[in-house]
Each structure stands twice: as C-alpha cells, then as structure tokens.
Amino acid sequence: MELRDIEIFLTLTEELHFGRTAERLHVSQSRVSQSIKQQERRIGGGLFERTSRAVRLTPLGERLRDRLRAGYSEIISGVEEATATARGQAGTLTIGTMATHYQSVEAVLDLFRQRHPQCELRLREILPTDPLGPLRAGSVDIGILWLPIREPDLTVGPVLHREKLVLAVAAGHPLAGRGSVELEDLGDHPVVYPEGPIPDYVWEAHTPSTTPAGRPIRRGLAIVTLEEAFRAIAGGSVVSPIGSDVAATRQRGDITFLPITDRPVLHYAPVWRNGGENALVRAFVQVVTNAQRTT
C-alpha cells in the first residue's frame, strides 16, 4: 500500500464522503474511488459500505483505520523532522554570552526561536577572561563576543549588539562623587586585569593599557569572574570599565557606576569555529543579519 493510498483511506474515514475527500486532497473523485477499490482487492474485504445516501466504515475498515492512523502520523512526523533538520531548523544550538548579555540580545534570540521552533536554543555563560575557550572546546556553538576577534580558527559574523562602557568604582572612592569621568582618569587609578587566556588585544578594547595621553594604566588585582571583579572594586583599591548593560543589572550600594565621556562602545558579534559551521549556525547568523536590516 503506497503512502498516498494510506492518506486517501484515512482521509475518507474522517470525511465519509468521496467528493469532500477528493477536494481536501486536491485529487479527482475517481482517483479516490480507484484507490479504495485497489486497497479492498489487495486486502480481500470491503473497507466501506456505500449507499446512495451515505458512506460508512465496515468493521474491517475500522480496524485498519485504527492500526494505520498512529503509524501514518509517525511517518509524517519523521519526514517533517528530517526536512527541518536538513534545512537547519532542528537540533540544538548552544549560544554563549557573558553575564547577562543574553538579555540585551533577547529580541534576536526570540526571532530565531520563532523562525526555527524545532531547534532547541541553549544559553551558556562565557567568562570575560576566557571568551574563546568554550568555542574551541566545543561547549558552545556560537559566542556573542566583543570585538575585535582576530583568530585564524574563528569566524566573526555581523555586529549584533553595541554597549557603552561605564566606570565602576567603590562608593567611597574619590571618583564616586563625580558625574562622569574620562579615559585619562584611569591613569591615576589601578584597574582590575584578567587572570585568564583572553588575548591582550581583546582585553585592550575593554580596558586599555594606556590613556589617550600615553600614560600607562596600572594593573591592580587579578580577577577571573565578574563577581570577583565587583568584590575587588567594592574594596576600593581598583576601578574598572564595565559594560553598561551589565551595570544596569548589578546595581549595588557599595559600587558607583560613572559614565565615561570619551569611551567608544563595545561591538558584539557572533563568533564560531571555522570547523563548527553548520546549518544551524548559518541560520542564526541569517537571523542576526535580517534583524540588523530592520533596525
């Protein structure tokens, strides 16, 4: 029995009308009649009772309907799932973000979920001090990282998000009473520095090593996590630029966040392994590209 014949049979069991079945399946009524007759000959018994006024299932037809219905649904679901997978719409895609940055790109994540409902989207946190490690280890498929990223084994996608930097200082710090600061002020105060494998040029975009006038910016306490950075800053011995999105979610009484008037914004983009590019990665990048065109 061909799949199309099964579809015709099951549809007729619902409609109990040859004409409506033909309309629903976009075939001729004679095609429906021919299919049912062939199935009855193959099985050796009547599946429907036909009169001038009605079409009814026979007991044999009812038993066949019950057996075929579940199997047919499984077949159709399997074909749809395979088609979705081939188009990059199914599977699991793991996105790595720093701290609460997933909230800043939630609109893009939601758009991806809407377009690819069969894909499971997982979010994992990436440490700012080791942004490339999870990518290279394969624990995330895409990392949303600040630029620049210039690594031969990694591909950088279109800019997804922009974030201003603010300066985090202890509430009792001499700078805390000011309405804003400039980058040149960092030459007078030690800053936190990363204890991790982040490339120097990547950290330089976040916390420069010199002021605009060329004065060195001293390193103070080493940190691994964002919470360690906040504890060090609250202690008063160091200050640090912090993303404004993160600062907005980490308001606390022992730290003051000051605007940096001359600080460029950080640009974030999806980054993935050259060897890890697949249909899901391409689908996510396409969503990012489309989202940028509408903003």
From TrEMBL:
GO CC list: protein-DNA complex
GO molecular function: DNA binding; DNA-binding transcription factor activity
Top-level taxon: Bacteria
Pfam families (alphabetical): HTH_1 (PF00126), LysR_substrate (PF03466)
UniProt keyword list: DNA-binding, Transcription, Transcription regulation
SUPFAM superfamilies per UniProt: Periplasmic binding protein-like II (SSF53850), Winged helix' DNA-binding domain (SSF46785)
Classification via InterPro entries: LysR_HTH_N (IPR000847), LysR_subst-bd (IPR005119), WH-like_DNA-bd_sf (IPR036388), WH_DNA-bd_sf (IPR036390)
Annotated HTH lysR-type domain residues: 1-58
UniProt similarity note: Belongs to the LysR transcriptional regulatory family.
Alphabetical list of PANTHER family matching this protein: HCA OPERON TRANSCRIPTIONAL ACTIVATOR HCAR, TRANSCRIPTIONAL DUAL REGULATOR HCAR-RELATED
Protein name: Transcriptional regulator, LysR family
Organism listed in the record: Micromonospora chokoriensis
Taxonomic lineage: Bacteria, Bacillati, Actinomycetota, Actinomycetes, Micromonosporales
